[in-house]
Structures are given as structure tokens and as C-alpha cells.
Input
Amino acid sequence: MFDFFSGRRPTTLANDAMIATSHPLSTAAGLEILAEGGKAVDAALAAVAVQSVVDPLMTGIGGDCFALYAPAGGAVKALNGSGRAPAGASVAALKALGVTELTQTSPHSITVPGAISAWCRLHADHGSLPLERLFRRAIHYAEAGFPVTPRVAMDWAESASIVAGDAHAALQYLPGGKSPAVGEKRAHPALGATLRAIAAEGAAAFYRGEKAERMVDHLKALGGLHTQEDFAAGLDGAQWVAPISAPYGDGYEIFECPPNGQGLAALMILRILAGFDLSENTSEADRIHLHAEATKLAYHHRDALLADPDSCPGLADTLLSDEVIETLRARIDMKRAGKPVLWNEPEHRDTIYLSVVDAEGNALSFINSIFHGFGSTRLEPETGVLLHSRGSSFRLIEGHPNAIAPNKRPMHTIIPGMLCRDGKAVMPFGVMGGHYQAAGHAAFISGVLDRGLDLQAAMDAPRSFAFNGVLEIEPTVGATVQADLAARGHVIKVVTSPIGGSQAIRIDPMAGLLSGGSDSRKDGCALGL
Output
């Protein structure tokens, strides 16, 4: 029996189709498409287009995108929609310009956005309704305005100081020098016009012609190395690739996108944790400790080795091998917090995620990001495109696998997930929260499969994240557990903002039932038909 006094929402149930996003207007837009008979891809594109307008600090058409798509009864495939560095970018070129750090607002942290290439690739291959229909709600909100929801208002205010540094972004997002209050209406007509152009002309409207020229000129004025040729090359940049996977639990397999995404780290964490008891028989302190230790080990490898797949061939096979996983697992001491080392001993954010299952049983796990809050904060005013900051993940270290180089893709934190059983998708899922995402995938899957929690309970459970030498913990973790972890050597930091957010839809074909959840830390919801 659900505890209606628990303070949390119940899992959403439906028969035929469902969508879960982190914003109510996005969920409503996607559900509208599903009700019209649209496919999972159609609903996802309608939802992400809306969220690019109503949640501008988290996502947008100036960002990147990854997806896992499972046709009804078919195999999972992965879409890499991450953009590349300009052809003129290299460690040597940037150092010659005096660049010593790739900061959030640097033009050199802006790779050619890959999102629109990915959206149009998905639509061409698996969509059914025209883009003009799919973008209708987003264009309406951009032109007529939309109400700012509570979580969006909070995050907007937290990013106001850095947004103020770009005159164009400040004019659009901080009129009068202030971020919006809850319920205040905002609009972005220039962005609406660009969405209209993409709906009419496809990805070419973004990567070639007048709008591409404006973005390139804007970046050059900021000191960027971008050219029109760089943008034109992004038109067909999105690529279908083979996903990577690992077994977990009783007959399940978790699929992730391969590098340059950090899904490999999520699979490493899960494989390490598979050797321990994480059920309700294990104390909360032990579960947090194990998750922290496995996360540190996996992220240490991520930061040292993960990059554009052309720069790290065979990495997934190596790091997911029994030899590596057993070696790493053996390094975990239940009594002490350890320091992460590479397995063979040689000697760094803001996103939206959504899940959709349509009436045919097609499942889509979809994530779109501009990385930091408001991305790079660099807004091209005529097109309304807010450019992301994903290139700040590159390293300025010659020889590092993730060193910036011509036409190279950076290591990515954004990762969609797909849970399968007997070769069929049973749950598209994902976690937002920048670097937390891989750790979040592992914690969510463990909650569902090891502890038997329903989707909403697994999402709403207290979170922790071991990163950069600190164990961040949400205040819902009790004082006794915090003291236990501190005694093991963890440096505890109780966070003031929620850690991440998540969405998922579980498919039960035998019962003809869809179960959906949307993280209570965000404004969104799961809705179905």
C-alpha cells in the first residue's frame, strides 16, 4: 500500500504510451503528440524543443545530444549527437593565444553544437509527424511567453551572476538586472524564429546559411577559431553507433552510449557493485560507502582515459573486463575511504533528460545538454541560440586522450540509459546532474534491482556523490549515517541544492502496463495514455 503521508508522489501508471520529463510543459507537449498517434521520437522532439525554450539554463539547440533507441522488440542502438572542436583548435594553437584554461565562458569551450543534427537524424529515421507539428508548442512559448516554474526559477537565480557577464545573455535572461520570479512570464522570439526555420528547412537551417554565418561571426568576435566550414561539417555530424553494455542483477543488461560519453563509468560502477550485497539487508552507511568507493575508482579512470573514441579505441572492452573489475573491486575497504588509482597503476552539469515509450512499444532514452547553467552564457542575439560550454571538458595537456584537437569530440558527461532483459528494452532511464550522471545511473539501477524500490521511490531516495575528494550528501541522509561515513575517512559536505534529477519508464508487456517516474527534485512529471 502506498504511503500517502510520505511526502513523495506515487509512480505513474498507464496502458499504452508514456513520457517523463523534468518540466511539466515538456511532458504535456510530448503527451499531446503521443495522443495524436506520434511515435516515441516525435514526442521526445516536441518535449525537448519546449524545454529548450522554457528551461534555457539547462538545455537548448546550441547544445549536444545523445540517445538510446529500442524499436519494439528490437535491439538497442545509440546515437552520438556530440559536436566537434573547430578545425583550427589544438593545444598548441590555444597556448599560442595565451589560453591556459578552458573556462565556462571562453569561446574555445564552444564546440560546434550537435543537438540539431541529432534531432533531425532521429526524426528522419524514426519519426512520423512533420517538424512543423512537433515544434508548434515550443514556438508558441517562445513567441507568446511561458511561466517560470519553481525549480527553474531557483536555478536561474543561482546562475544570474555569470549570465550578467554577457551583454546579450543579460538582456534576454536578466531584463532589469534580475532573474524571473516563480510564475513570471518570459519569451524569446528570436529562438522561436530559429525553431521555425529548422522546422521548415531541417538541420541545414542551423548549420548552413544566414544563421550559421551569424553564429560563426559572433564566435569570431569573441576570439573563437570557428569557421563556416566547421558548422557545415556538423550538418551530418550525428552518428548511429553500437552501444556498450554490462550485466547486472537477475538476467538484466544495462546499455549505455560508448565513449566519448561517460556511460562507461556507469557500467564500471555497476560491475564493481555487483560483487556486494546492496539489498535492504545492508545498512544505508555501507551502501553509500560502497557507492562512493566504486564511483571514485570509475571516475578516476574516466578522467584519465575517456575521450573521443578515435583517441581511446578498445577502452570499454578493457575497463569492463573481469580482470580490471575484480582488481578494482578488491581495492574497496569497507572500513576506510580509499584514494582511487588506475587499475594497472600508471600514473574533472546542466542537462535535461526524458524517457518515452509509444503505443507501438518503441522506447527512447534521450538527453540534451548545454553543460553548465546557461552553457557558455554566449548568446547570439539574432538567432536566439545560447551556445553550450561542452568544450571545457577538453584538456590542455599534450598527449592526454582528451586533449583538444582539430575536429575532436570532448569527453561527455551526458548519458542516456536503457535497461533490457532477454534482449528487449524494459526501461529507458536517465539521470541529470553533470558529473553525477554516471554515479546516478548506478545508484538508481541499484535502488530498483537490488532494493526492489518502485521507480519514484528509487528516484526520490537520498543521494550522495563522491567527487573531487568530497562526499556530497543530501540533508535527508541522517546524522548517524553521516557520522559513520565521516569515521571511515570520508570528507562530508551536506549540499544545499538537490543532487541531480531523473526520469524513467518501466515496461511490463505481460501486464500491459507502463510505470513512470519523474524526479521530485525537478518541476516535471510522468504522464501516460
The longest strand covers residues 363-371. The first helix runs from residue 24 to 35. Residues 343-348 have pLDDT under 50 and may be disordered.
